[in-house]
Amino acid sequence: MFQQEEYDVIVVGAGHAGCEAAAAAANMGSKVLLVTMNMNTIAQMSCNPAMGGVAKGQIVREVDALGGQSGIITDKTMIQFRMLNRSKGPAMWSPRAQSDRMRFAEEWRLTLEQTPNVDFWQEAVTGLVVENDTVVGVKTQLGIEFRGKSVVLTNGTFLNGLIHIGEKQFGGGRAAESKSTGITEQLKELGFEAGRMKTGTPPRVDGRSLDYSKMEEQSGDAEPSKFSYLDTPTLAKQRPCYITYTNPEVHEILKEGFEKSPMFQGRIKGLGPRYCPSVEDKINRFADKDRHQIFVEPEGWSTVEVYVNGFSSSLPEDVQYRALRKIAGFENSKMFRPGYAIEYDFFPPTQLHLTLETKRIKNLYFAGQINGTTGYEEAACQGLMAGINAHNRVHGKEPFILKRSEAYIGVLIDDLVNKGTDEPYRMFTSRAEHRILLRQDNADLRLTPLGHSLGLASDERMERVREKQEQTAEIVKLLKNFGIEPAEINGWLEEIGSATIHEKTRAVNLLRRPNVELPDLTRALPALTLALGQYRPDALEQAVILVKYEAYLEKEHQQAARVQELEDFTIRGRLDYRAMPALSHEAREKLLKIQPETLGQASRISGVSPADVSVLMVYLGR
Ligand code: FAD
After folding, report:
1. pLDDT of amino acid 563
2. Where along the chain is NAD(+) bound (predicted)?
3. pTM to 2 decimals?
4. Is the pLDDT assigned to residue 1 strictly greater than 60?
5. CB-based contacts of 396: which residues, under 8 Å, 6+ apart?
6. Which atom of ligand 1 is nearest to the CA of 426?
């Protein structure tokens, strides 16, 4: 055996999924080997230099609350922070950071190097070592065999990756990086089904060649927040982004390249992300629109490179260049790197258990883009869950599965395993039926106790959660009891155009009014300011959300509890779907393929109708 005895967990690939998987398993006490093709591209952001955003920001908060690293690393390396959707209800608030691409990768590598129990090996893995339908190690290009009790595959866009720029195409996992071969072929031989997907990225340009005076500035929040619930830094200064637009002239030039477009000419076979289209796709599909928004995003503190968000393209590089130069502010722009599209293999995730272990090969886990998802956040959370479950498996512990009502992470994995995906899957708030409960402000309350009992979230995290819980409860009580006389408040209520009160009321009743926020109320009522002065800002925020939305939250908790009844009903191994003639043909096929654990899981499989669920319930004697 080379270099080391048997590892507990071997992680293949050091992208966003692989890094979280390695860190989680190692922090829980596993001996981990992280094998990656290129140690200089650990945690490389392949596309946009940003973390978070709508629904994705909630995921990063959840990863952090469980004891993952992505939130901490984002906080340490961001150049701008914005809380998106502040004007909407708190379920929609979504943290988003503009990252320093190079610093982000550097910080991840540093974090892993400082994590005891993580060994590194730079090389391409070309196959798995499988004995008796159980993975026992990996093989590399040099022919080295590393033995491991479990393996987590996180190959990203690298499996038989094919890069397209106009009519040119070449193998690669990402620009300037090799593709990975061998793994798909072996997995297919082992009986796995594989598919093909595609994604794309825009050109990067020289910031010194741009005229920002022709663009709108987009600054970060005046009081920037952050991702981690730990004591990470907030930004003292920020870099602005800019907004500009395409125009008909840009569109005309891009159209000249259509005949060389790998997408329009059918050379790209894989399905791409519908909600993240290339610029050529946008002008083709929305022909009536004469402009599309472009976000001009700096790539870091100390680089002039700029990311042209909204201009993803696989048209020939000269077409990209000429079209770019017709955009306001880009007239003299110089391109550093062209945009490109990439096709890669993925494995339909219906082949996985909810732990992300494959159904076919024991102790083998898949996480990230290999499962048909797209996005750093989606990858990171799967890596975390695969790392936790691989660790638990080899140490004889229980599987760790999050419910749909507990976390976006639970929604994501449940969707993947039960519904599969035929286009790159990204998270949206609309995918989470209990999104009112799954807010970015309470991920710590929801998940840190779970992460702590796993041995992943630190005592410090747990202590902070306990304190937040206690303070929140105290503040809620205080707001429910704090009396306000009409004379104290009516002047201010008139000022803001809110109905005056005629008798003494409680603070909570005013806070429930949509146009009354706590800072306003405390400004009008010095006694309330005094009473609340001792509490943490996050506890104050939590308490206000709880009282303002009490009725909605109550209803949602009841709904989740009702759904949970089906979730608690274990059916795996109890039913013979072949012997149920009343099931539809499609439902039988899907149930046999997916082998759901619970009645709840069965009810969410696409192709299993409510009528089929009723059939299952009859057989279960319910
Ligand atoms: P990756 O980040 O791809 O990491 C995979 C890692 O595995 C790499 O370190 C690689 O070196 C290593 N590796 C692969 N094979 C082997 C092997 N055989 N042996 C050893 N190491 C191996 N996401 C969005 O949300 N929006 C977008 O618009 C978007 N556009 C994209 C455009 C492009 C061109 C690319 C490449 C990606 C894009 N993404 C986009 C996707 C985003 O980059 C991924 O979702 C995310 O990085 C996936 O993380 P991952 O950990 O699964 O894989």
Report:
1. 85
2. 272-286
3. 0.96
4. no
5. none
6. 25
Paired strand residues for 366 = 153
5 pLDDT higher than 90: no
Q: Is 375 in the pocket of ligand 1 (CB under 6 A)?
A: yes
Name the closest-CA residue to atom 40, ligand 1: 375
How do residues 421-455 score in pLDDT, each as one tens digit?
989 999 999 999 999 999 999 999 999 999 999 99
Closest atom of ligand 1 relative to the 200 alpha carbon: 32
Top-tier CATH class for 569-620: mainly alpha
For ligand 1, atom 11, name the residue with the nearest CA.
37
CATH of 204-341, one of 3.40.640.10, 2.60.40.1120, 2.40.30.260, 2.30.130.10: 2.40.30.260
Please state, in angstroms and rounded to a whole number, the distance separating the CA atoms of residues 137 and 2.
Answer: 12
Cα separation of 327 and 333, whole Å?
A: 9
Is the CB of residue 350 below 6 angstroms from any atom belonging to ligand 1? no
Q: What is residue 19's DSSP assignment?
A: H
Query: Distance from the CA of 173 to the center of ligand 1, in angstroms?
Result: 8
Beta bridge partners of 484: 505
Flag whether 282 is marked binding: yes
- The alpha carbon torsion through 28, 31, 35, 38 (nearest 10 deg) reads 70
User: What's the longest Cα–Cα distance across the chain?
Assistant: 83
Residues 6+ apart with CB under 8 A from 491: none
Tokens linked to 48: 């946009």
Higher pLDDT pick, 523 / 203: 203
Q: What is the CATH number of domain 459-555?
A: 1.10.10.1800
17 assigned ligand-binding residue: yes
Residue pLDDT, tens place only, 311-366 = 999 999 999 999 999 999 999 999 999 999 999 999 999 999 999 999 999 999 99
430 assigned ligand-binding residue: no
Site to probe by mutation for ligand 1, drawn from 120, 154, 184, 271 as the one with most ligand atoms within 8 Å of Cβ, is: 154
Residue 621 banded pLDDT, cuts 50, 70, 90: confident
Ligand 1 centre distance from Cα of residue 16 (Å)? 8
What are the domain boundaries of the chain? 204-341, 459-555, 569-620
How far apart, in whole angstroms, are the C-alpha atoms of residue 528 and residue 234?
Answer: 28
Query: 213 CA to middle of ligand 1, Å?
Result: 35
**Closest listed residue to residue 78, CA positions, set 230, 193, 190, 235:** 235
Q: What is the mean pLDDT of the chain?
A: 96
Q: Write the pLDDT tens digit of every residue in 137-156.
A: 999 999 999 999 999 999 99
Domain 204-341 shares a fold with domain 569-620:
no
